[in-house]
Amino acid sequence: MSAAPALPRAWRDGQLAVLLLLPIALINAIGFILPVLNLARYSFNRSRIGGGIEQVFTWENWVGLLSDPFYLELVLNSVWISLAITLTTLVVSYPIALYLHRASGSWRTFLTVLVISPLLTSAVVRTYGWIAILTDDGPVVSAIKALGLPAPSLMFNIKGVFIGLTEILMPYMILALMAGFGRLDPRVEEAARTLGATPARTFRKVILPLTLPGIALGCLLCFVLAVSSFITPKLMGGGRVFLLATEIYDQAIVTLNWPLASTLSILVLIVFGAALWAYSAVLRRLD
Amino acid sequence: MTAMKNATRAGLAALAMALATSVAMADTVVLTAYSGIFQENYVKAVVEPFMKANPDIIVEFYGMPNSAQMLGTLRAQASAPQIDIAIMDVSVAKAATDEGIFAPMDETVTQHLADLYPQARYEGVNAAGVTFDNLILLYNTDKVQQAPTSWNALWDAQYAKQVSIPAVPDIQGTTLTIITDKMAGGTNYIESVEAGLKRLEELAPLVQTWEPRPDVYQPISSGTAAIGIGWNARAQVYADLSDGKLGVVLPEEGSGFQINVIGLVKGGPASESAKKFIDYALSPEAQAAFTEQMFYAPTNAKAAALISEKALQRTAAGAMDRMIDINWLEVAKVRDAITEQWRRRVIPLSR
Predict the structure, then answer these.
(1) Which Pfam families match (chain A) (predicted)?
(2) Which residues on chain B are in Cβ contact (under 8 Å) with A50?
(3) What is the distance between the alpha carbons of residues A278 and B173, in angstroms, rounded to a whole number?
């Protein structure tokens, strides 16, 4: 019995890595890079009346987009609404994630499954659930009315989108936070308390700084998901909430203005790029 | 045992041969049109009778949710079409024609062109009108006690925050703009719909949603909304399914048509059989059958004589004199401007 022949030396020196990376790089190039380049090309075409496309090279779409107050407001609206939703999701998810991080045994498993379980239902179904709950005849508004308070309109406006998206994004935020809580050692907290720090001070000076990587990751994930979310604003916004994703749908599917839809899509990519840059800047500072 | 084996073999061979010959003989025509309730009824009223009469042709119905997606698919297949026929909105068909997707629509395709109403033919569109639909007023019979007779019911303050309107760029919103403009004294909707927009600004605060989902018919049937606008054919079908909860009215001021056209895809795989189907789809018999089934008004003038009075009354056929003649190709030119005005002036007033 002779030993298996050794791998050629060159393979061990990195060619193997290239070979192993090749399939995914190819899939990525065909399935992602090329379509994005094609999309970018479309944003320089001209749309004809009624949905036709003229193959030219023009900056019209970009100039039109950047000089039209409606679209500038649309971009700003999308960014700030997504930021606000991300922040709210963080505030409501953080205590849950921290509790889960500290829990142990089967109780922890049970709670984790509970947190993840909404992901097993499609966002469309959950959104319809929220419509039933928040509509003017629904239980929430009825309960507020029963208390004798002025009933707010919670559905088919920005409030509905806000509530729906926050709930839908919570599992992602909680999972990202838990993944980033690795550095939080209970002994450090104990040490702080032993040295006389109040619970609030322990949280501010010890827990929060140690969990910042998780917070940054969760915020990046939720922001990207919020900016690109389309079903929930479409179903719960009542046609009053204009966001980038819903506008891309309208331009691509209803108005058939593919060049403008492509321009807006590239703009979303630029927003994502900015978010990623901010995330890595935060990470660098943390290190 | 051997005998049985042989019998099985012979049986299988016969089956294989039968399958092979039927596959070889049958020509498959792929038709794309709206999915859902349209598909259900069109297959029943037109596709199945056609296949019965032409056993050598199989028509495969490839449903898509809207005309834009049909155009997108046809565009993607431009170099090697898989679809032979498309039924889509006339303004989208214009874009498809401009891009060279449709073959010319003439007497070599169908013998029925001369019998079609003039509104079914558009210059510059390689497709012929196959269904007429019109905008109607929808109401929930529990919430609206007395059947409304006028579009003005939408502005009735007692239905505040209970009005459901599919807004522009959906063409239901565009059609409402044109009707409202005419009611408010507008004379030429291509030049200006200012009078209509002013009136819609008054409607905005009463609107519950500008984007009813999954469509406008369900929320009104279920009572989530009280009143709204929609297309006649679908409304009639859903009204029958709603246990009397969904009311449908063609208001006294009249309405406007939406037109679906049928087009032959250039270079499709089964063009000859596809022409046969288009000819059948535009025939008085097929047109009458689809009106009986789903209450789209026929585009073939000879069809009306074959349709029952009961079905005809549920279409706009009896109110032709009150219909606004909307030229959708002209509207396409001002559609962006109308959308812009809605978004900047009308919808913000409902926040």
Answers:
(1) BPD_transp_1
(2) 91-92, 94-95, 98, 329, 332
(3) 41
**CATH hierarchy code of domain A69-286:** 1.10.3720.10
Domain ranges of chain A: 69-286
Q: Which pair of structure tokens corresponds to residue B51? A: 């296949």
| pLDDT cut 90: percent of chain B above it | 83
pLDDT over 70, % of chain B: 93
* Three-point CA angle B212, B213, B215, nearest 5°: 80
- Tell me the ipTM for this assembly: 0.80
Q: How far is A270 from chain B (nearest CA, A)?
A: 25
Domains in chain B and their CATH numbers? 2-131+259-317 (3.40.190.10), 133-257+324-350 (3.40.190.10)
Burial class (CB in 10 A: 0-12, 13-18, 19+), B130: buried
Chain B: nearest CA to A55, how far in angstroms? 11
A77 and chain B: CB distance < 8 Å anywhere? no
From chain A, the residues in CB contact with B99 under 8 A are 52-53
Read off the pTM: 0.86
A52 contact residues in B (CB cutoff 8 A): 95, 98-99
- Per-residue pLDDT reduced to its tens digit, B63-82: 999 998 999 899 989 999 99
Tokens matching residue A90: 């963080």
For residues B230-243, average pLDDT: 96
Provide the b/e sequence for A11-44 (b: ≥16 CB within 10 Å): eeeeeeeeeeeeeeeeeeeeeeeeeeeebeebbb
Closest Cα in chain B to A252: B68
Q: Percent of chain A beyond pLDDT 90?
A: 69
Are B95 and A52 an interchain contact pair (Cβ–Cβ within 8 Å)?
A: yes
- In degrees, rounded to 5, the angle at the alpha carbon of residue A282 between the alpha carbons of residues A279 and A284 is 110
Chain A residues lying within 8 Å of B124, measured CB to CB:
none
